[in-house]
Specification:
It is a single chain. The protein is an all-alpha fold and 91 residues long. It has four helices and no strands.
Length: 91
């Protein structure tokens, strides 16, 4: 999935219309991909990984306003991705 497609889906998730937040959202998508990679996940071009990136970026966007911890569904999705053989140490 392209960065533009990820951006479109992230904006839908966040309910953002227009382009005023695009620079920040692009940075959050890149940060989300880096943070996921730091967890040991090798991202693929799959719908599941695209959704994981979008969920993580949306969490980062919302976190700045609420300062809440990572949502369980996101932690669960990351753990499932890591322990299902999606990490860099997978055989």
């Amino acid at each position: 999935m392209t960065q533009q497609e990820l951006m479109t889906l992230l904006k839908i998730d966040l309910g953002i219309i227009g382009t005023a937040y695009d620079p920040q959202l692009e940075q959050l998508l890149s940060a989300a991909q880096s943070f996921i990679a730091r967890e040991g996940v090798t991202l693929t071009d799959s719908v599941e990984d695209a959704q994981l990136i979008i969920m993580y970026a949306a969490y980062l966007y919302r976190k700045r306003a609420t300062d809440e911890g990572m949502p369980r569904m996101l932690r669960w999705a990351l753990n499932n991705r890591i322990f299902s053989g999606g990490g860099t140490d997978a055989p």
